[in-house]
Amino acid sequence: MKFLNRKKIRSFFHQVFRYAEGILFFLKSILSKKQFLYLSCVFVGASSAVAVIILKYFAHSVFLFASYIDSLSHLPYLNSILPIIGILLTVFIIKKFLNGNIEKGTYQIMISVAKRSGIMPRKQMYAQIVTSSLTVGMGGSLGLESPIAITGAAFGSNYAQNYRLNHKDRILLLACGVAAGISAAFNAPIAGVLFAIEIILADVAVSAFIPIMIASATGTIVSNLIIKEDILLSFKQQLTFDSDNTPYYVLLGILSGIFCVYHARMFRKTEHFISSFKKGIYKKAIIGSSMLAGLIFLFPTLFGEGYESIKVLAGENPQEILSNTILSKHIDNQWVLLLFVSGAALMKALAAGLTMGSGGNGGNFAPSLFVGSYLGFALSHLLTLLGLKEIPIHNFTVVGMAGVLSGLFHAPLTAIFLIAEITGGYGLVVPLLIVSSISFAISKRMEKYSMDIKSIAKTGMVFTSDKDFNILSTISIKNYIQKDLRVLTLLNTTQDAFEIFSQTTQSFIPVVNQENEIVGSVELDKVRPIIFNNFQTKFTLLKDIIVPPPIALSTDSAKTVTDLFEHYHSNYLLIQKDGKFLGSLFKYDILEAYRRNHKYLLLD
């Protein structure tokens, strides 16, 4: 009976989905292309917001439950146990139901844009929600924003595929899903738009702003209708800027930039250290999560996203952050509070690296806000305790978030407008500009690539601020290698070269040895007087007309290949793989591919 009921329920939802799908196909047939695209932005934005609602409510409910239990024992015992369970469950789900693999990090979206024409796997529509809710919701020290962004991107990509939209609209809806997810997570529609454009799409046309803004606004509206304000990261205080504090904001910007570099490098080292364990995925998960549990026991605010603790620090009684910790007896000691906050800021990179390396899923967006708020609080509290100046601690706690977010993600605009929106005004816009720009400049100087894409940026797999590079990164060199050209060996004669030139349209002939290694090439323009003179052809040795070849590796990116064309002043390249001749590449084919991809990308 239960089986029949379950079957009926499944059949009901399937029919509802098919009915809705039919309506959308009908609307597509009667609406203009632009009208249907705008309607699609609304559906994608609403879907992304629903994902945010699910994740936020689950994470908040677990946090409240753990906090209540730990308040009874006055120590974070449950806080320390839940992350172990959450990471183990995440690893189990990935192994048993997701083919043992899940793509983590927002750079996966950029790879999809750069290399896969905006196509994302269907499983990303649910895999990120399930795994990140288990990891972060149960205390893993990462954030939900990266999974939210990937989920939103997957909604947009698969929607476009389902309704047979073109390449350009598919990438646009992907960006719409990202913008809606971020805007719903923070009730910050402008920040959602800027995040999609500044981080996901490095270069975008003005015409693309309207669909992205529609999706972002939809995400915010749906989120506001359901999510209570206390679940989101928001501040109600009216914060204002005092120009006398400008030097201290400059100092905060410098410290934020330096701390960004520390956090990024420590996170990567910790993640690599744990993930490199070769003791089985479950043993690795237990080891890594147990180490994380120890850190959370010492610093309970490392539990989950940590947004609740940020609100406490920016509130009227920041010392409450010491409640239910091993330092609760010293709750009124301001120096103990300073040491605790500073220690938590330093340990966040370790906690995030342990969470990710042991098999958990999440992102570094929330950790960047956590570290920034703690850094801003620590600096302002230290200056106050030293008696140097009465610093507005609330302001520095909030502005610090923008500084670290800007430096870690190389996204100053997103950082500035996100903090401005969650504080309910632009009273701190001047210090936000100061701190974000200084932090970005220092971080960019010491770390060329942002935290999320450093490991893959040099491979040419993602978009950068270089427009030409963005287009070239979409070109796969292996698709243009020609392997049907006739070649010569050292056993051939000049007469053989003459026959090839006279019988084909080849302007050059690759020359290889018996091991198929490239020796050189014979170029028609350079040997024309010899080749078409019977006497000289007969008495000129082949080795005398061979010239050094322009060579490229089969793994070279399109950007590298175009540089080699310029370096050799050649219209062709000989491609080799593992030292062996593979085929030839023509400059014309790459330029034609560049022109074609330029037309399809959202760049003009």
Give a description of the structure.
- 64% of the residues lie in helices and 5% in strands.
- With 604 residues, the chain is mainly alpha-helical.
- It folds into four domains: 1-28; 29-231, Clc chloride channel (Orthogonal Bundle), CATH 1.10.3080; 243-461, Clc chloride channel, CATH 1.10.3080; 472-600, CBS-domain.
- It has a three-stranded mixed β-sheet with strand order 1-2-3. A three-stranded mixed β-sheet has the order 4-5-6.
- It is elongated, with a radius of gyration of 29 Å.
- It starts with a helix and ends with a helix.
- 49% of the residues are buried.
SSE blueprint:
Blueprint: H1 2-30, H2 33-73, H3 77-97, H4 107-115, H5 124-135, H6 145-162, H7 167-186, H8 189-200, H9 209-226, H10 246-275, H11 281-298, H12 307-313, H13 334-357, H14 365-385, H15 393-409, H16 412-422, H17 429-446, H18 454-457, H19 467-472, E1 488-489, H20 494-503, E2 508-512, E3 518-523, H21 524-531, H22 534-539, E4 551-553, H23 558-568, E5 572-577, E6 580-586, H24 587-600
Parallel strand pairs: 1-2, 4-5
Antiparallel strand pairs: 2-3, 5-6
Keywords: Chloride, Chloride channel, Ion channel, Ion transport, Membrane, Transmembrane, Transmembrane helix, Transport
Main location: membrane
Membrane topology: Multi-pass membrane protein
